Amino acid sequence: MTISGPLPPLSILIADDSATIRRFVFDAVQAAPVAPDIVEAVDGPGCLEHLSSGSFDVAFVDVNMPGLSGMEALAESRRKGITTFVVIMSSEMDRDRLAFARTLGAYDYLAKPFTGKDVSAILENYVRFTRPTSALLVDDSAATRSVIKRVMEDSLFELQIDEAIDGPSAIVAYQSGQHDIVFLDINMPGLSGIDTLETLRKIKADVKVALITAERSAELDRSLAEGKFDVLLYKPFFAEDVDQALHTLFGLRQPSLVDAGSKSEPEPAREQVAI
To answer: What is the pLDDT averaged over residues 37-55?
Structure first.
């Protein structure tokens, strides 16, 4: 993804007891197409103090720091209600660490050594999340639309959601609005989701569509593998699944935490589509 248009300055915290790592991340941030205001912390207590201020957009936090671990600093800041966009850094990575970082609401977990491109991609993703994204939600069931909308509102992306009750109304809405993304139910009376998608592609060949269905089938899986559509969301799904779908559709780097943890045990604030 290439960032375009004017950017607000990003306030960025880099917390690591290694001067070498801090310098590396500092240089990578400076090279990214953002306007950074950078503060550094050299230990865990300093990291916690800065995080607790709630004044940072993005924080790169090392796990192993003197005085307090990065995970402990992040956990304490979360208890204080701080919602800073955090990326964990560590020379060690395993499933338990990934799952714990995900529980703490970290966005990504960078295993050392990582690259400057990794840092740049994360910052570009953050900018994309905070920019308004126009979404069209298409489903013939008002109850289902209500549930899916609540899940979408819990996405990392700043989604502005319009609704359509069927294929024909979705086509009209898309023609008039040219939405950034369409969430389209496959099984609708009259014009099906697949037929609606074909019409939307005639309006705009590269329309970004996430197809939604409660019915699993080998045919749908095969069509996805063959590239007939880009994303397929099977009900029930969570806000994390919406985020993953949008990463795919917008060509964004997927975070390491995307598969960490069990989706059978979602975070309390993250709702599930179960209709």
So the answer is: 97
DSSP class of residue 253 equals P
3-state helix, strand, coil in the chain (%, to 5): 40, 20, 35
CB 89 within 8 A of CB 97: no
Query: Is 87 within 8 Å of 107 (Cβ atoms)?
Result: yes
Range of the domain at 76: 9-128
CB 273 within 8 A of CB 238: yes
List the one residue out of 163, 129, 160 whose CA is nearest residue 246.
129
**Mean pLDDT value across the chain:** 89
Q: Give the integer Cα–Cα distance in Å for 62 and 97.
A: 12
Note whether 145 and 118 are same-domain residues: no
Q: Would you say residue 65 has pLDDT above 70? A: yes
pLDDT above 50 for 264:
no
Mean pLDDT of 127-156: 94
Number of domains forming the structure of the chain: 2
Coil, helix or strand for 96?
helix
Helix residue spans in the chain (DSSP H): 19-31, 44-52, 70-79, 95-103, 116-130, 142-153, 167-177, 193-203, 218-225, 239-249
Q: Answer whether residue 115 shows pLDDT above 50.
A: yes
Paired with 213 in beta bridges are 234
136 and 235 both lie in a single domain: yes
Query: For position 225, which CATH number holds?
Result: 3.40.50.2300
Q: Among 28, 221, 32, 13, which residue's Cα sits nearest to residue 128?
A: 32
pLDDT tens digits for 226-257? 778 789 999 888 999 999 999 999 999 999 88
Residues in contact with 154: Cβ distance below 8 Å, sequence separation at least 6, in sequence order: 239, 269, 270, 271
